[in-house]
């Protein structure tokens, strides 16, 4: 991926969105590698790639991911995880990840990744987390030397189809004062409910350790219910199929009248943040029930109804995107103005897995930055 972002301006030639302070809550480490880095790391381990041209490789990832199926989309990670099996590879990828976020105007990022997928070349779970943290800290230091400031935390993730969730939860808590700020489960959603990992979620609750759960992407309301009830999720990864629990009763020229089901009502009333990723949601078919274009995404309905929507990239490599681009696409689709983009960032700041005083400081930084 090109680490320099083009300008994306609001309609009318306003401010360049890239320069605005942004918060990234849903961004996978193994979905944000630079193509050139993949090529160089693959050469070190003699891994065959579809192409050794960085531009063509980036296009290959985007084409493979644009399948309309989460299962097919996830297959692209076989390549990225293959080059992230050594301390050096993990550290480099994490360092560049932080640099790329900062270049896109991100001031706080939460990097999610599954350590259990990075043990093929002899690393332990703790080795892997420490390697990523080393890269994060190097990236933060390099960003600071360039005159900017960014905060980063790890969301330690368990794979929902595996049976290591408790072990990964214990790993996350073990590193809570050394970079880990939250826990997640990811992977194939349908058929693998959060309840499979109830023991892990019970442990995390007892440790007062925050949880986000992928739900409402490749499965519907029961998956979201499981994330909330079994997972005690404070945020929903994607969560877009929550819109299945919203009934449009009638519309007129000025208003849309809706009723909320119990799950949607709970999520809205409790201000549980939705970690939406517009381009990814199109690629994986998460919004297929509503259409195939971004304008069909239930994002705007959720926003207008007062849900705490946030905007994210999910996997920048696979979606050939940045947070700036995602905000620009939404602004074009729904006519959003600067104040709307600010609201999305304040929602994300409020939902960040940070202490209250740090979330308040982050919100102040966003308000100041948007005031220009």
From TrEMBL:
Database matches in Pfam families: A_deaminase
Biological process annotations from GO: adenosine catabolic process; hypoxanthine salvage; inosine biosynthetic process; nucleotide metabolic process
EC number: 3.5.4.4
GO cellular component, as recorded: cytosol
Cofactor: Zn(2+)
GO MF annotations, alphabetized: adenosine deaminase activity; metal ion binding
Keywords: Hydrolase, Metal-binding, Nucleotide metabolism, Zinc
Keyword Metal-binding: yes
Residues spanning the signal sequence: none
Domain Adenosine deaminase: 21-367
Enzyme class: hydrolase
Family statement drawn from the similarity comment of this UniProt entry: Belongs to the metallo-dependent hydrolases superfamily. Adenosine and AMP deaminases family.
Full protein name: adenosine deaminase
Species name: Agromyces rhizosphaerae
Gene: add1
